[in-house]
Design brief:
Shape: globular
Strand order of the largest sheet: 1-2-4-5-6-3
Number of helices: 3
Number of domains: 1
CATH topology: Thiol Ester Dehydrase, Chain A
CATH superfamily: Hotdog Thioesterase
CATH class: Alpha Beta
Strand content: 35-45%
C-alpha cells in the first residue's frame, strides 16, 4: 500500500476521534507497516505522559493497516484481543509504530506491534488477534 492508499483507508474506516491522532505513513510492504504518531500535548494525561488509550488506539489502527496491506486491500475485520505492555513512559516527541502480521489464517490474523519513542527506545509492545469478517 502506498501513502495515498493508507490515507484513504484511514479516512474511510476510522472513527473521527482516531483520525484526529493524525497517524502518518512512514513505510509499508506486505510484511509490515510503520507509521508515525505526531506528538501533541493534548495526548498527555495529568501525569504528563501520553495516555495508554492513545497507544492502544494507535497500535490497533496500524495493525489494521498492516493486515490490509497483507490482504492487498481492506476487508472487514474486528479486534478479538490485544495484549499490551507499557514499558516506558513517553512525555514528548513523535512515536514510531511498526505492525507486523505474524500469521494470516483463513479467519484469524495474529500480529505484533511495537511503539518506539523519539530516542528509538521501545515504549510499548502489543500482540493482537483479529477476526476477518468476510
Amino acid at each position: 500500500m502506498d501513502d495515498k492508499e493508507i490515507a484513504e483507508l484511514l479516512d474511510r474506516v476510522l472513527a473521527p476521534w482516531v483520525r484526529s491522532l493524525s497517524l502518518t505513513p512512514v513505510s509499508a510492504d506486505e510484511d509490515s507497516v510503520t507509521m508515525r504518531l505526531p506528538f501533541s500535548g493534548e495526548l498527555r494525561h495529568s501525569g504528563g505522559v501520553i495516555c495508554g488509550q492513545v497507544f492502544m488506539a494507535a497500535a490497533d489502527t496500524v495493525m489494521v493497516v498492516a493486515i490490509s496491506a497483507a490482504l492487498g486491500g481492506f476487508k472487514p475485520m474486528t479486534t478479538v484481543s490485544m495484549n499490551i505492555s507499557f514499558m516506558r513512559a513517553v512525555r514528548k516527541g513523535d512515536v514510531t509504530i511498526t505492525a507486523r502480521v505474524l500469521r494470516m489464517g483463513r479467519n484469524l490474523v495474529f500480529g505484533e506491534v511495537e511503539l518506539f519513542d523519539e530516542d528509538g527506545k521501545m515504549a510499548v509492545h502489543a500482540t493482537t488477534t483479529y477476526a476477518l469478517l468476510n
